[in-house]
Write a structure and sequence with these properties.
The structure holds two protein chains of two kinds. In chain A, strand 4 and strand 5 form a beta hairpin. By secondary structure, chain A is an alpha+beta fold. In chain A, the strands form two sheets. An eight-stranded antiparallel beta sheet of chain A has the order 2-3-4-5-1-8-10-9, with helices on both faces. In chain A, strands 6-7 form a two-stranded antiparallel ribbon. Chain A is built from twelve helices and ten strands. Chain B is mainly alpha-helical. A two-stranded antiparallel sheet of chain B has the order 1-2. The longest helix of chain B has 23 residues. Classes of the chains: A alpha+beta, B mainly alpha. Chains A and B meet through helix 4, strand 6, strand 7, helix 6 and strand 9 of A and helix 2, helix 3, helix 6 and helix 7 of B.
Chain lengths: 362, 176
Amino acid sequence: MTSKDAEVLNGILTRSASPWMDGSGELGSVVISSRVRLARNLEDVPFPHLLSENDASAVMEKVFEAARNIGEKGFGGPVISISLDKIPPLDCQVLVEKHLISPQHAQGKAGQGLVLRHDEAAAIMVNEEDHLRIQVLRSGLELEEAWVLASGIDDLFEQNLDYAYDERIGYLTCCPTNVGTGIRASVMVHLPALAVANETSRVLTAVNKIGLVVRGLYGEGTEGQGNVFQISNQITLGQTEKEIIENLSLVVRQVVTEEVKVREMLYRNHRVEVEDRVFRALGILSNARKITSDEAIRLWSDLRLGVELSMIPRLEIKDVNEILVLSRPNFVQKFFGTALTAQERDIRRAELIRKHLASRGV
Amino acid sequence: MMCEECGKAPATVHIERIINGRKMTMHLCRDCAQRSGLMTLGMLFQPSFSINSLMSAFLGSQLEALPATGPGAEGPRCPVCGMSYRDFARVGRLGCSRCYQVFEDRLEPLLRRIHGSDTHVGKAPAGAGEKARMRRQLEDLRKQLSRAVSDEAYEEAAKIRDRIKEVEAKLRGNPA
């Protein structure tokens, strides 16, 4: 990595604003973001879990070279290529917290790589479970747009690499659950009103029954945190990418309709209670001297609901979303450039959030 | 076992509670468990439909069907990565793209089970059509070759062999 690239990476790791979390895009008051991921592999090269360190590094170099050929134009913006075993473990963890790589991809193994657009809108994991995982992220419900860019990047990689593809069963992936299109489309939604009304599990169980999967904000096991859920497809074979995306969009729209209905009802019938909850959250977040990440996320959800209902004119959704990143334990340490104990982190986290809100005039 | 609460549906949720040092176990159906308020959000979202669990169940039964010892115990083996079918069934991940060909017969029912389909209908790489055509041509030529050999038409067989080499070279991307 050149020193210029290192500087770009450092910028990404220490900034709390991500363009794909700026509150823009369709249904941005409920839908945080959309993601499309394509799994691709090289023909007749063992999948990453069977590759030696040397062979994995050779695959990574090949993909990095392809990325150089694709260039700024192909990715839709400038990119950096990172060997993840050459950067500090803390940096990898911040990439996980920013949803740019998976936890499995942050183990610092030789040959694990990342091609990352400067604005974080596209991130290609190299040698995760598959040789390539092309990811595109967008703010709001914009799966179609994400798919178009991911597919375009995919076309350009294909010109540079020999993909493993079978006429009958499509793109060949390490796990048979991804074979065919190799696509995982996923939408992150914020459902605070459904939670208040105790309706979350009813709605999400229905979503699961039609073959979609629901996970929490930071993956499995974090269900309910911040009332944020990720809804994604499971089936990748026998349906076109367009069908998969349209089906998911349709379901998300229905979930959004339910959430909005309850929000309106709450605001109509329990306005004081809602306002009380929102402004208490604002009060604590803008004044606390010590705060855990769990508490911060809980209050974040209330605060975001207030902004979604236009209760706090000075705050925009993108300002609130930044608090999610500011709250993460590794981000706090990266930002202050030093390892911190849990207690110190709570103090620094409170400080970061306080200053952030003050800079927005609240 | 049926649900202790409604007695109408099978009990699929088992909750253990320790109250004042006494352990109590409840066996409930999903609906009653949800109504009981004892389940956390995380428990409720144990996906009832997960293709990962469908796959593990399927692979588990295939593992049992393999002989425990002897020559057939490992199942077929992939020539590129060396993975055996037993290895795959144990970890649920294949070793390389060639495995799909080697284990084709066993993977097809698996794919139908987890995806409800065994045929891709989405995007294809731009170069895929040409390559597929060449692969089909190669298969044809190989059949012709074995026919020629069994007919003892050696001159014909030599010609076919040259054609096979040509197509193979093209497939590898370096035309002879």
